Amino acid sequence: MVISIVVSPGFTAYLVEVETFETPVQIPDDGWVYDEETRRWCIEFPAEPLKESFVKKYGILNRRAEVGVIFSHEYLFPQVDDGEYVFESKGYVETSYDRGKTWWVLDEYDDTTLDSVRDAYTTLTSCSIWIRFTVEGTGDTVSTVQGYWCVWDIDIIGDTRGKPPQSIAEIPAASTHWYRNRVTVTIRASDKVGVREIHYLLTRHETVVPGNHETFLVSESGVNKIGYWAIDTLGNEEVPYFFSIAIDLEPPIVQINKPEPGLLLFGNKVPLSLNHTIIIGDFIIEATIFDNVSGIHDVGFYLDGKSIDKTCGEPYTIYCDIRHSGNATVKAIAEDVAHWKSIDSLEILYYNF
Predict the structure, then answer these.
(1) Checking DSSP bridges between strand 15-20 and strand 50-60, what pairing results, if any?
(2) pLDDT tens, 17-66?
(3) How far apart are the C-alpha atoms of 135 and 175, rounded to whole Å?
């Protein structure tokens, strides 16, 4: 099989031929089994302490190209310590540029994974690359835990200075630019050679997650600044995107301060000690209203449900000259920018002819 790779900027444009040798270079009695149907190399362990490996060889005809090693795998590397028996196992992915004389560890694995995952490594080539997958077990020869490692789709792709991934952020629609509850954000990235990881910034904290998508919750009141970008399996990094999510989780505060309990005669307070409010003639309604997050959008004052006046700025004071006789209810209704509403009311005895 021959793969064509376009070299990175800075060199004369041409194609680099990458020759892969499908038959692995075998280490005698290495314990790996190849399945022709699934095209998977698998090994089961431990039967005894071991260090087994198989090698896949790649010939690179141009040493100036940078490549990534990509493969899929599933594994279970047992770690046993029951007080009587001890067994530890690991898997290593290694590379050699001198036909197996010297090996460099690209990554190592232990414990378990339930999913098929995809890993990538970036290396500067020499005339050829050999990739080796090694299982190492140490400890007692007796263990009831069966480990395994299956590897497939081994390939190389270049070059590492190619086109970066493309990401988008998905958020729910809002009636205004303010949300009234916590917001779920999903970042999705795509790339020809595969996305290695997604980075995102929230409240100045950077999070890195493997794979091509991530979902997280934005829950803080106020303006939340978010940035995100992706890196592909060959190390190409996307230019970050930034946006904001404004959240207001609480309604405004409303409190009617005037009229106060007592007798109010044509706008003048009569010095009588009363627990309720009696008003004769026109009077002034005053309220304290504020919102710490999105801010006040609209304030309305009402007498028995009938609008007296509206205002959108301080001071929240209006003049009432509505004709009335008997009991009445004064209300102040405030709405913030996020459309939260709050109401305060006052019961009065009001006469105005």
Answers:
(1) antiparallel
(2) 334 444 444 444 467 888 888 888 888 876 555 666 666 655 554 444 55
(3) 57
The CA angle 242-244-249, to the nearest 5 degrees, is: 155
**Phi/psi at 125 (nearest 5 deg)?**
-80, 155
**Contact yes or no for 281/267 (Cβ under 8 A):** yes
Give the model's pLDDT for residue 3. Answer: 27
- Secondary structure class of 48 (helix, strand, coil): coil
The ranges assigned to domains in the chain are 2-158, 166-247, 253-352
**Token output for 80:** 């046993």
- Predicted confidence at residue 123, as pLDDT, reads 46
- First-to-last alpha carbon distance for the chain, in angstroms, is 100
CATH numeric code, 166-247 = 2.60.40.10
- Range 253-352 has CATH code 2.40.50.140: no
Specify the residue for token string 């098929």: 116
Q: Facing residues of 5 across strands?
A: 16
